[in-house]
Amino acid sequence: MWTSPRTLLKTLLVMTIAGTLTAWGTPASPYVAQILTSIPVVAGEGDQFENAVKAAVTDVLEHAIAFVPTVVDVRGARVVGDRIYILLLIADDDGAAVVKALGEGNTEEF
């Protein structure tokens, strides 16, 4: 069976592109984000305050990040003027492992 040179070139081109894409593929990267959000000081006390904080965190999770978090940690909160600023650390599975390793002072893996 005879194959035309044009068909051979097309096949070679497709194989080269596929091989290049496979060779350049990279493993998934860990995702870690530190995000600052805020709520008004007049959010109240007790359950009302807790609901305001939960709403702010939910808003960040739904609108500010594009990955599925497995760790959500409140790193701090400060009152500045009429706002309460809440610092969040958010990470996926791989990111949580990186945060844990850095917290333990283990930087040899990087």
Features:
110 residues, alpha+beta, Dodecin subunit-like, 3 helices, 3 strands, 25% strand
Report on the architecture of this protein.
This protein has a domain at 32-103: Dodecin subunit-like (2-Layer Sandwich), CATH 3.30.1660. Helices cover 44% and strands 25% of the residues. The relative contact order is 0.17. A hairpin with a 2-residue loop joins strand 2 and strand 3. It is elongated. The mean pLDDT is 82. The chain has 110 residues and is an alpha+beta fold. The protein has helices at residues 5-24, 47-63, 93-103, and strands at 32-40, 71-80, 83-91. It has a three-stranded antiparallel sheet with strand order 1-3-2.
Summarize the structure.
The protein is α+β, with helices and mostly antiparallel strands and 110 residues long. The protein is built from 3 helices and 3 strands.
Tell me the layout of helices and strands.
Elements: H1 5-24, E1 32-40, H2 47-63, E2 71-80, E3 83-91, H3 93-103
Antiparallel strand pairs: 1-3, 2-3
Any idea what the radius of gyration is? 24 Å
Largest β sheet strand count, sense and barrel closure = 3 strands, antiparallel
Distance between the termini: 54 Å
Query: What order do the strands of the largest sheet run in, or round the barrel if closed?
Result: 1-3-2
Instruction: Work out the number of β strands.
Output: 3
The percent range for helix content is 40-55%
In DSSP terms, counting alpha (H) and pi (I) runs of 4 or more, how many helices?
3
CATH topology of the domain at 32-103: Dodecin subunit-like
- Order of H and E elements: HEHEEH
Low-confidence stretches: none
| Class from helix and strand fractions | alpha+beta
Shape: elongated
Task: Tell me the CATH architecture of the domain at 32-103.
Answer: 2-Layer Sandwich
CATH class of the domain at 32-103: Alpha Beta
> β content, as a range?
25-35%
Mean pLDDT: 82
